[in-house]
Amino acid sequence: MKTGSAWALILGSSSGFGEAISLELAAEGYNIFGVHLDRKVTQPKVDSIINLIKSKNVAVQFFNVNAADDIKRKGVIESIEKTLIATNSALRILVHSIAFGTLRPFISDNEKEFISRAQIEMTLDVMANSLIYWVQDIVSKKIMSAGGRVFAMTSAGSHRVWHDYGAVSAAKSALESYIRQLAVELAPKGITANAVCAGVTDTPALRKIPGHEKMIEIASQRNPSGRMTTPSDAAKAIVALSHEGTNWITGNIINVDGGEDIAG
Fold this sequence. Notes:
By secondary structure, the chain is of the alpha/beta class. It has one domain (about 5-264): 3-Layer(aba) Sandwich (Rossmann fold). It is about 40% helix and about 15% strand. The protein contains 8 helices and 7 strands, in the order E-H-E-H-E-H-E-H-E-H-E-H-H-E-H. The chain has helices at about 15-25, 45-55, 70-85, 115-140, 165-185, 210-220, 230-240, 260-264, and strands at about 5-10, 30-35, 60-65, 90-95, 150-155, 190-200, 255. The protein has a 7-stranded parallel β-sheet with strand order 3-2-1-4-5-6-7, with helices on both faces. Helix 5 links the parallel strand 5 (about 150-155) and strand 6 (about 190-200). Helix 4 (about 115-140) runs parallel beside helix 5. The mean pLDDT is about 90.
């Protein structure tokens, strides 16, 4: 474990954007804390990601817990704090990349298909509210200081409509609002907060959306750059925004999509 080296905390580190961001930041020399929620059947993939991170000659600690659980979150924060003290290190980057919500319609001819109050509230809590609670703990524990970076992964779904996507769309909109508010409240501490809005990307989360095949087809045809966005595109953008000299970039929704959204 590198004494004095900076750490990054990735929420949702075991697949999609979180996986790519973890690997890209590790390649930049960041030690990685990862929070993920996986069953035994997917643990071999998680182990392979951990080994890939280690191959970058950095330290890594993954926590298999529900990031939206208050008790689990505080336990992870305590473990992180102990590691940072032991290694005389600091947490420099927090990335919120949690994709877990209910995909059901608000309105349907069949009342039984309606999304429920509990499902709406769960989606908002996991995909948006949890960002606030993690940042609050990190700031109160003083484990991130001036020069810190907070990122949240959003999507065009925050302002576009897709069948069954309503609750997730609301969560993405809330996430973007939270980033703006955090940017203002964290500015006196020298910490930035930005949302990265990736284009349509073929990830495990996307493949859970009804009609994702059509989304992929449309994005592939519409993107003026001639291809779909990849997790690596978003990961490289976060690395670039983490460099020194980007401290005046805060409170933004930054499109990383090859021009897809403006061409639609």
